[in-house]
Design a protein that fits this description.
By secondary structure, this protein is α/β, with parallel strands linked by helices. The chain has one domain: Rossmann fold, CATH 3.40.50. The chain is built from seven helices and seven strands; from the N terminus they run βαβββαβααβαααβ. Helix 1 crosses helix 7 and helix 2 packs parallel to helix 4.
Length: 215
């Protein structure tokens, strides 16, 4: 299938692109940074989803909105407005089969940087709007909300033992997901899944669910 993924130069986006490529799909990646994937089935476009010129990519079958920033001063512009801009350009056409948004656990809890949480909460609302509108093509639209993920973006806390121990104490299953695990979810939701739409999947090792019963 023809897959378009934003934010493919590193982290979750790169892992998702590599998952699809490993299974023989044609992948186009859009990122502000240069290509870090070497495959004959991969096309890389350097572009800013918030304000750059988006490439012409016809007949996208799977669209995965992953690109984002954190506590940058541009979280709303990139994470929300940029994602809307990408989706409006590529999602609403006859070839589309699935649209996926990478949101965040903070969209549910609000427990992160203010603009980041707001941008990801907006993605959940926009995802449902997209699901309503792509249904006429027989397509699904869903989102994944990862909690902590072991990517370079989070090295600051991963490498700080005191902070890491505190995070683990607040997590029901004391670990974080890998980017590769999120990629497996992305593949399942966009390719294997044919019936779930307008839904968000929270993948946070039980951080939001953790509670202590006091008798």
């Amino acid at each position: 299938m023809k897959v378009l993924i934003t934010g493919t130069s590193n982290g979750i986006g790169k892992a998702i692109a590599e998952k699809f490529l490993s299974l023989g799909h044609d992948v186009t990646g859009i990122d502000k940074e240069g290509a870090t994937i070497d495959s004959c089935n991969y096309t890389h476009v350097v572009a800013d989803i918030a304000k750059g010129v988006l490439p012409e990519v016809d007949g996208v079958e799977i669209l995965i909105n992953n690109a984002g920033v954190q506590d940058s001063g541009e979280d709303i512009d990139v994470n929300l407005k940029g994602t809307i801009r990408v989706s409006e350009k590529y999602a609403f056409q006859d070839k589309i089969k699935s649209v996926l948004f990478i949101a965040s656990a903070s969209a549910h809890t609000g427990a992160e940087f203010p603009e980041y949480s707001a941008s990801k909460g907006g993605i959940l609302a926009y995802m449902k709007n997209v699901a309503l509108r792509v249904a006429k093509y027989g397509a699904t639209a869903n989102s994944l909300s990862p909690g902590g993920v072991t990517t370079a973006l989070n090295d600051r806390v991963i490498q700080d033992k005191k902070m890491w121990d505190k995070i683990m104490s607040l997590t029901l299953i004391p670990k974080w997901a890998s980017a590769e695990e999120i990629a497996e979810w992305a593949y399942f939701v966009t390719v294997v899944n044919k019936s779930m739409t307008a839904q968000d999947i929270l993948i946070d090792n039980g951080e939001a669910a953790k509670a202590e019963f006091v008798w």
